[in-house]
Each structure stands twice: as structure tokens, then as C-alpha cells.
Write a structure and sequence with these properties.
single chain; about 525 residues; Immunoglobulin-like; 4 domains; five-stranded antiparallel sheet; five-stranded mixed sheet; 2 helices; 34 strands; about 5% helix
Length: about 525
Amino acid sequence: MQFTQHASYCYTGASFSSCFWEYYAVANFPLIADNITAVPVPDNSSAKWRMNTFGVASANTDAVFDTSSPVSQHCGAADVGPADCTVNFATSQTSRLAPYEFLFVSTSMNDAPPCSPSSAQGWSLMGSDGRQETDFQVASFAQGSYSFTCRAFSDPLIIMADGVRGQWPDFSIKAGSNSVTSNVGSTATVTVSMTPLNGFIGTVNATAVESPSEGLVCTLSPSSLSLGAAQNSTLSCTGATGTYNVTVTGSSASLSHSLSVIVRFQDFTISTDRGSSISTQGSESSFKVIVTGIGAFSGNVTLACGSQLPAGVSCSFSPSSAPLPFKSTLTVATSSSTPSGYYPITIKGAANSTLRSTTSYLHVVPPDIFQYSLTFKGMNATITGNLSVNSTSGTLIGPASLNIVNGTDGTLKYSKNFGVNLSIDTSGRAVFIGEIPMSPNWLAVSCTINVYGASSRCTFSRTPDLNQDGIVSIIDVATVAIAFGGTPTSPNWNAATDLNDDGVVDVQDVATVALYFGASLSS
């Protein structure tokens, strides 16, 4: 504990000198056999030092001492000889009356018996050792006049009176629970208790304020409580799905206390395993639908698609209804006549009057059917493909074929059928490269397919996979960079890097490698 000096009083008379020092500390824990040591400074061996220690329970720690105290008085024994000595004092007026005040009087004596004040004065002896005495009483009013008289036979030297205020009358407010969860359509209730403290008697008015204010309505019943003993009020709330903070306040004159209650209204949620899917006209796409209860919500939820489906699109759920929680597979089927486009698919869930929904998107695209005839360095290439979207894997799949013939005599130089499985990037682009092992440089037919726009573009050139490791990588980019600007007469010339065979390694060759960077090749 940290002790602080509150008051002191010294008097030097013709016969004796005497002093009081008053220290106090606020203890936030019970005092049990605690030792307090006082060391006089300076240590005058001719002085008689005494210390009296006591504790006051239920003191007002916000305003410990009466503002009219301490009051001090020197006595005749300090000057001329023993005589009755009286100290008169009054407790102060406060804006909030305390039910009691602990008053104490300290008396310095010249090795004499106790003061024995008049019983009419209401004092009780706390302790006396012939040199120092402490008397006390508990005042029954917060304002009054008091008197303490120490008899002449006690040889009193000085007296100091002080007062410790008791706690003010008040009340406490407490919720049966700091949070409550209820389903939409039900009422959430919490018991709020008001308890009088330190002799409080009065009426407490209770109010509830919701935050946010929209979506929740709360009432208190009763909203006015007459406290002489503990009383309860019931907080009742109804609202929409969400989490709210309700501040409950009890007020009586200048007294006001508040508490917060978290109120949650929850039911169930619907979500899908992905926000969108791609489907080729005439095929199916599927979503995993997750239906989850929140809080104590229970019961069956029935699933259905919204009514605004595009032409030629149907949907079905398996299962279409089940108790929470559960997962369902939504199958969305398109027809060959479904227009290409990006469509919202609204998924609805119903449980009695509670409705919830979520939206995923379906990108309907036409099949990618293409055929190109290309020529490069006397070779004619024919590339064909019939590709569609696998909505489960999100890839472009299907058969493709590549044939290379000599442009002069029609001799077949290379023929390959591919099973294509291409990744689709976020912009809807897929890349296919058919690599052709030829001498002295490998060739390649490279195709960029715009899945969303149902368009494609293919080129015939030297392969951008310059080291023939099956992928267009940073090594290929570096190889072109080293040869950049080279011509057949340049020391850095590398014919393999002149992808379009125009006699110079320029920005077009760099752009081709960059376009297909990261693409895997088929050979």
C-alpha cells in the first residue's frame, strides 16, 4: 500500500511540545495481520513516539475525508497545567448525502489515564497507552455538529478530530447475461437487476438504446422500479438478422448507471463453393450449395432457383430439402439455344417464413470450333479443334489435330492428334501450342483462344520453346534477349530466335515469347 500524508498538527507550549501526523492508504484487498512500520526522522531519543493504526471499511474512496476536517486544538496542560480540553467541529454539507461518516479524535497526553469523554458525546475508545489515545463514533447523519472533551486528569496536550466519509447511497445494475442469441421471428430476452446500495431508497427509471438503431426494437418491462430491495426488469428485443449493442441505463436523480448487452438475431446462411462457372452451350455446370444454421436455428430448408433464369436454362438440387446443416449439388443445364452471356443464378432457401438467398454466376459460351491453314518457310500447316468448357475443372478440353505438308510437293512431314486440356485464365484466355520437331529448327503452331468471346487466333512460326523443354520459360525469354537486334551477319545471331523468319530478331519475336510465356507445349 502507498501511504499519503493527509494532515499534521504541532503545538509548542510553555511546558510541552506535541505533534500529530496523519497518513492514510486505500487498500483494494482485505487487511489481515498486516504490519505497518513508522520510522521517526530525525530519531530524537528524548521524544515519545506513538503510532495508532486502524482500518475503516466501506469508505468512500472517491472522496475519503470530510472537507471540514481535520480540526485541531491545543490544551492547557501544554502551557500552564492540567485542564479539561474540548474540540468542537462540524461535518460538511455534501450534494449526495452519505448514510454514515466515521469520525475519530486523536489526543496526545502526558502519561495519563484515558480521556473518558461524556457518554452524551457518543464517543467510544479505540485505544490508549497513556501517551496517545484514539476515540471514534459513526455519525448517523452526513451533516452535524460534534464535540469531544478530554478530562483534566488525562493531562491532554493537543487534540485533532477528523472524519472519513462512507459510501454514498447508490444502486447497481446487472444483466443476467451480457449477450443473447435468438432466431429471426423470436424474441430475445435478458433479465436486468437493479440493487440498492448503502441504504438507497428511490425510483430508478430504465431505458434501452439500440445500436445500430435500425433493424432492432427493444423494450424494458417494467421501465420504472421502486428500489428498497432488489428489483428486476425484462429486456425484450425483436429484430432482423445481425449483431446489435443495446445500452440499458438506470437513472435516479443525479445517479446513472449503464450496461451493454449484445443481441444477435441469426437463422441460416446459403453459400456456394464458387462464385461463377463457365458452361458451353448445350452442357451442364454444377455448384456445391452449403446451407448452414447459425446459432440455435433448426428445421428444414427447401432450395429453389430464382425465376429469372435465361432462356433454355434449367436447374435442379440434390437434395432439394434437408435439416440443417447440409450440402446440396446444384446442376444448371443449358441448351444449344441458350444465348451466350454472363448470367446471375439466384439460389433461394426457405424455412417457414424465413427466406435467405445467394447469387452465383454462369458464363455461357459457344463451343470453340476452329480450323486454320497456315504457311511458314515452304511448309503448309492445318490445325483444327473442337473444344468445350469442362465446368467442373474450369478447363477447355477436346480434340485437336495438326498436319504439316511440304508446300512444293505435298509430302506429309508431320501429323498429330491431341487431347487438349487447357487452363483458362481470369480474362477467359486459353493457349494451345502444337510443337513440330523439324531440322534445323523446331516449328510450332500457336493458338490463343478467347473462351468468352468465342474467337481464336493461330500462328505458324519457329517454336517459342527455344530449349525444347516443353514450356515457354524465362530461359526462352533470356535467349531471345541475348540475340535481340541480331541479323545473319551479327556475332549474336541465333536463327532459332528469329521466330517469324524475317531476318532480324526484333520486338515481334520478343512479343511472341511474351505472349506464350508460361504455356505448356504439345508435341
